[in-house]
Amino acid sequence: MRGLAARRQQDEEETAALVPTPPAPAQPSSQAEDAAPPPCHDDDSTGSKPPVVDHAEQGQPTAKPWERLLPTRGVGMATGGLVVLALLLVGSTSSGWSYLDSSPSALGSSIISGLAGHGRRGRPPHHTSSPGQPRVPIPFNCGNVTFSQLPTCSSAATPPSAAMSSEPRRAPEPAPACPEYFRYIHSDLSPWRKSGITREALERARDRATFRLVVVGGRAYVEKLHPAFQTRDVFTQWGILQLLARYPGRVPDLDLMFFCGDIPRVRVANFPDPSAAPPIFMYCKDENAINILFPDWTFWGWPEVNIRPWAPFVEEEAHENRRVPWPERKPYAYWKGNPDVASVRKDLMRCNASSKGGKDWNARLFRQDWKRANRNGFKDSNLAKQCLYRYKIYVQGRGWSVSEKYILACDSPMLHISTPYRDFFSRGLVAGRHYWPIDAARKCPSIKFAVDWGNAHPALAQQLGEEGSAFAREELSMDYVYDYMLHLLTLYAGLLRYEPTVPKNAVELSLETMACPARGRARKFMMESMEKYVADYEPCALPPPFTAKEAREIAQRDLVVRSKVKKMEETWR
């Protein structure tokens, strides 16, 4: 147990937070506190898109001193940079390779026209609600009761679908194709595609898992196996309840193990036969891990550090992006976080303008003090208000970092320091189209070059930022997050070679038993992330697995991008 506690103490950014954890939602228990919960939300106070208050000062914006500052040293020597970035911005398929031998001017022209029908302008809406058809609300009611009087999953006993109108409903419109990163669902499940998953195989993951989740007849049951850091497990389970409510009757019976840590627990080297590996869900992996990726808990909120659920956060950040347009932002690369959780972050701090040596690497880096942030009510820690620089740096933590999606949504190019870790959606990001790759071994000069190049080519740099931000807003919208979960769990359930049953020590989860006892930010974020209506549309259409040829092309494309960026940097020096 000592080793487990030590690992939890070293967990990612939360570790050094030392922020008092808000009371977690109580599991159903006869020993629950005898205190009345706060009143439940009304329809006007919840939903995925709460109103955003404009805090911008009145009056015309004044000229900034940095608006006249465009570092260009050596950039003129790297004309090939335009070729590389243009190629990458054009697309993510092999159709773009015909431009490799094109002239810089021809390629520069092709990028502008290529973007017109690509990315954010090419993604159709997830769905269109049927006009005139009443939407079916998802039942939820805390009531004026004490904790000991909480309802025992009454909402699960009567599925929302039972309340649907008897009037004939118009046939749903054809579903759009899911984003490309959904294809990795097949990859994650491939070790067990032929053999399937037995109960014995699942039990082998027990010592590695934080909790076990079982769905039977559309109702969720959880068995807690090991402590989770903060409320990672709670908000992951809350997200699964939202899926069950959004798509009632669509999630098949299943039985899974979930690990809420940062570092993959099942390694390829330990299982020459991958089908013998215990299946376990978690948030990230590297190429040497065997596990199944699932959306992380912060999509429904991170109360310990006051990060809102993803849907309202995206709305707030879009507002802030409009308030400070990209050309008016400071022409440097920005990062703020806890450098103590990983050596790569400590090394990044050498690139700060205030570091020893006095060289300006175009980086503005800030240490996040979570204890102080908590004391002042997180007034200076709102991620949505940190889009004040033209470039944002992403760097891994102990494993991957949840910060990636927030950085990506900033309308500023993401300078992505190379890392072996990927989460479920970042496998769909394309270097040079959604982000600029930074060599982890040469962070400081790589960051300086990226900023110099972007300031010398502001139109292309701004497009790079917009493409990454569009990915975050559209391809990573909660509609697609839930569809990813649904497709993943459906295919996973199809691999089980036994009938799932409720474990002896499991408790049933419901919206009421999780949200009604919650307090403070935990309660607030649950209300903000709660689904209000049953989906009256089909999920997106799952694309097929990657072919061997496509997998090779993706790997080759990434190598070519990084190689050309490296040559650009060498030419610039």
List its salient traits:
573 residues, alpha/beta, 4-stranded antiparallel sheet, 11 strands, 33% helix, 9% strand, globular
Can you give a write-up of this model?
This protein is of the alpha/beta class. Helices cover 33% and strands 9% of the residues. Helix 12 links the parallel strand 8 (389-394) and strand 9 (414-417). Helix 3 packs parallel to helix 4 (104-116) and helix 3 (80-90) runs antiparallel to helix 18 (548-572). The model is unreliable at 1-121 and 145-166 (pLDDT under 50).
Shape: globular
User: Taking strands numbered 1, 2, ... along the chain, how are they ordered across the largest sheet?
Assistant: 7-6-8-9-10
Which bin fits the share of residues in helices? Answer: 25-40%
Gap between N and C termini, in Å?
51 Å
Largest sheet: 5 strands, parallel
Number of strands: 11
Oligomer: single chain
Order of helices and strands: HHHHHHHEEHEEEHEHEHEHEEHHHEHHH
Number of helices: 18
Regions with pLDDT < 50 over 5+ consecutive residues? 1-121, 145-166
SSE-based structural type: alpha/beta
